[in-house]
Amino acid sequence: MSIKVGIYGYGNLGRGVECAVKLNGDMELVGVFTRRDPLNVKTLFNTPVYSADNVLDFENKIDVLVICGGSATDLPKQTPNLSKYFNCVDSFDTHAKIPEHFDNVDKICKDNGTVTLISAGWDPGMFSLNRLYASSVLANGSLYTFWGKGVSQGHSDAIRRIKGVKDAKQYTIPVESALERVRNGENPELSTREKHLRECFVVLEDGADANAIENEIKTMPNYFADYDTTVHFISQEELDKNHAGIPHGGFVICSGNTGVNGENKHVIEYSLKLDSNPEFTASVIVAYARAVSRLASEKSFGCKTVFDVAPKYLSQLSDEEMRKNLL
Amino acid sequence: MSIKVGIYGYGNLGRGVECAVKLNGDMELVGVFTRRDPLNVKTLFNTPVYSADNVLDFENKIDVLVICGGSATDLPKQTPNLSKYFNCVDSFDTHAKIPEHFDNVDKICKDNGTVTLISAGWDPGMFSLNRLYASSVLANGSLYTFWGKGVSQGHSDAIRRIKGVKDAKQYTIPVESALERVRNGENPELSTREKHLRECFVVLEDGADANAIENEIKTMPNYFADYDTTVHFISQEELDKNHAGIPHGGFVICSGNTGVNGENKHVIEYSLKLDSNPEFTASVIVAYARAVSRLASEKSFGCKTVFDVAPKYLSQLSDEEMRKNLL
Questions:
Q1: pLDDT tens across A293-325, in order?
Q2: pTM score, two decimals?
């Protein structure tokens, strides 16, 4: 019996989920649910499109609903609401608000007999797992997370909001020398500026003042002021040709010592190099959708995170196959 | 209430467990159990030493017994026997015999109401976890495991058994160009020879025939014949000075594609760089000892592997702290 998956919200992430489900033979797509007019939404694999207003008609036809809304305003409402009726997965990534989101969703799930896993993806998600495993194994270890090289949607948007900017793309880049110090187990204390660079590719409106805009970017509080930022002005053609992708990635590194006097050093490193941030995020979500369907059939109701899910629940393999082939 | 840990077997791994428990504030050591005369065993931190014959006197005084025997002959007997009375962790690492070992231990644990986790360490262990997570997320991914640079005890022993060899140390080294091809997502098919090199440092007995021994090493079936092997003859002083450590490590890399036509490539890489193979293995074991004590208090009896254990069971942090600080 294949796992019946619904996609709620159809942007980059929703399309990524549609692609990822196609790669998993034990799953099938029931439909895409959109707030737009369904007639105007064309899916990648001819998955049927329905209005989000009609999602409750599918209460008994969907095993897991993947909610592909944004973390700022969509998910804090959508995930609790939909968890009344469906087992869900979301990719809520506002780290500071995860505890609140968890509590909201947990209550709904327990009241309604559903399972919802929040914050699936790579950070939060696979990076979180690696932070937990590494710091549990190296009890005195120092943990570092670096992001990039990759496109930050939020920072690109911030530049695009500047008057005189026609289009822009921002790359977050880990500082190679900082990475090397961490890999060497030096346990450095690193400031924000020492960890990441920001590189911006900006298309100006006709007649815009390049110097003023460069200054406005570099001094923008929270987004750029605490970083070494470089700004390149390029044409729209160049931006479209060379910066159309949404790659990302990064590193979780933990170093710690063991021995009678801490004489032996150990470095654990996990890294991702992703051509498409949303498609990889979607791939993680889909693996956790499998876990959610299994947890629901075990009646393990409530809100879950990646920390709560035994790894075996993610795999299509049987326990025996896993032990034989992967252990 | 701290977790009471016993150590059964006191070689390099047992000493590593003793060190690791000291780093974990929620654990305490009850004792070391040895097959040698306890009077002749001196522990690193004055942990009491008892005869292995008396371990059953501690049936109600130990929450988790860490079994530090060898995989070839000790663990296949010790782990089932001791699982009748104790919750246990072992580091059974004969990959081909894991299914059989699991079945033996599982029956004993279920009959006796105990929890035993087998095959903790880094491979099997952390590497297995990464193989499972990566291949679950990238459903069409290609998985690669490389070991080293590090000392292989088995290969060092094989050289030492050659007539005319006084002492020896063997390093397993991943082939850098193969690693690079895998990291680039080329999904190469790699032969044994293309993945790893073997480098041997050998001390000869007086009058031994160096050429004959070099040839015997390089042509030894299973151990060296399928690899590019280099042999260095050095003095005992040099071996003791430069090759006394037991470092190890390695890489698990998975690359796969997503998108409508597989147009986007993703590479997941997990690596370890370990100054002390047994001390890191011990650190993993101790984190899983915590998990075992929790699973036992939940009466989740049976044999477990790292695949069966939700990550949160490994951490000293509460669920709330984990979600706040690590997710």
A1: 999 999 999 999 999 999 999 999 999 999 999
A2: 0.97
CA distance B306 to chain A (A): 8
Say how many C-beta atoms besides its own lie within 10 A of residue A138's C-beta.
Answer: 25
Contact predicate A99/A251, CB 8 Å: no
On the CB side of A183, how many CA atoms lie within 13 Å of its CA?
14
Contact present, A87 and A118 (Cβ < 8 Å): no
Which of B132, B274, B324 is opposite residue A311, by nearest beta carbon? B132
Based on its alpha-carbon atoms, the radius of gyration of chain B, rounded to whole angstroms, reads 22
* A138:B271 CB<8 A: no
What ipTM describes this predicted complex?
Answer: 0.97
Chain B residue nearest residue A22, CA to CA: B260
Three-state DSSP state, A96: helix
B135–A260 C-beta distance less than 8 A = no
The closest CB to that of B268, out of A272, A308, A312, belongs to: A272
Count residue pairs from A and B with Cβ separation < 8 A: 218
Distance CA B256, CA B9 (A): 42
Nearest CA in chain B to A311: B307
Q: State how far the Cα of B117 lies from the Cα of B102, in Å rounded to an integer.
A: 9
Considering only CB atoms, which chain A residues are within 8 Å of B44? 260
Which residues touch A81 (CB under 8 Å, ≥6 apart)?
Answer: none
Distance from CA of B208 to the nearest CA of A (A): 36
Q: pLDDT, tens digit, for every residue of B283-319?
A: 999 999 999 999 999 999 999 999 999 999 999 999 9
Q: Do A266 and B282 touch (CB under 8 A)?
A: no
Contact (CB<8Å) B276/A266: yes
A133 contact residues in B (CB cutoff 8 A): 126, 129, 311, 314
CA distances (Å), origin A148, targets A234, A274, B6, B115, B204: 22, 9, 44, 41, 51
Å from B240 to nearest chain A CA? 17
Can you tell me the distance from the alpha carbon of B106 to that of B119, in angstroms, rounded to the nearest whole number?
Answer: 13
The answer to whether the Cβ–Cβ distance between B279 and A259 falls below 8 Å is yes
**What six digits make up the tokens of A84?**
């009344």
Orientation angle between helical segments A277-297 and B126-137, nearest 10 degrees: 100
